[in-house]
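Office hours follow-up: a student asked to see two folded examples consecutively, so here they are.
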Amino acid sequence: MGSVYAQSDEAIAKMLAGRIKQRRLELNLTQEAVAEEAGISRSAYQSLELHGTGKITSLIGVLRALNALDEFEQLVPDRPHSPIAILKAQGQKRLRASQEKVGVMEIPGSRFSGLSRIKVPNNKSNTNEDSDW
């Protein structure tokens, strides 16, 4: 059927709905039976099966009723991170704001309450006007 990325969200939803209907028919179950087992109304089930619309909790209930919940795990698998990747990510995580001191300049008549101050470079050791902040 081609790449799913080339399809619209609605087309993917209808494809998923068709697969749910196919699974229900393979198990020889009525819409009423699946809806009851899923804990939703028949109209909610029909909306899910015919149009691919509904709540995600309804979808989970239907997959459970169709004994297909394990296939949901394949839809969005848990991707554990390696211990090294976790340590690297923690090394990049900010724990607190920096204590770097910079000068502050008031902007007279600023209409932005609380934003009337801007940081200006501290030129203690650098007199070059084109220096980075």
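And the second, which I mentioned at the end of office hours:
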Amino acid sequence: MTGLTDMNGTDGMTQQVENPFWSFSLALYERPGVELACLRLQNKAAMDVNLALLCCWLGMRGVFLPKESLQHLIDQTEAWRQTVIGPIRDARIASKSVELPAEMNGRDAFREDLKQVELAAERMLQDMLYLMLNELPGKDGREADPGGLVRGNLSRYAGACKRRIDAGLRTAFETLAQESMTLA
């Protein structure tokens, strides 16, 4: 997720649902170290940032996400991530390194347009995830430590993705958990 804060309202491109998860994500992404933690999850562990942010948001709301629920969310959103968000992100990244004639000067504006389209696609993914919560089994963990719930949700998400939790992933999870706590 790149430059998440550039898209904090309606943009004219998509019909958006009332989504407190998106508001939480915007606030969390602004916290120190969160952007780097999210990029580590995305680029080093091939984990979806939006699902990681959902793990944080639900943990802070007292929800324990079982691995089966996480797997359901992964499965239901895979097509959108692979066929929409992925190609847009790939095009944005590729546009940075392709050589253009010296007299062409629109690359930065073009990349910014791609970034906004990518963010709109990610917002739509977050809206999908938010709407799926009505049918998703979760466990009441309101009596538990929210930070512990965030950490547990993130660990179960890594397990659902078949990722080994190494030091880098643990550090990213800890950053997300600590910074989520500041938003309580």
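Two things to take away from it. The chain is about 65% helix and 0% strand. Confidence is low (pLDDT under 50) at residues 1-14.
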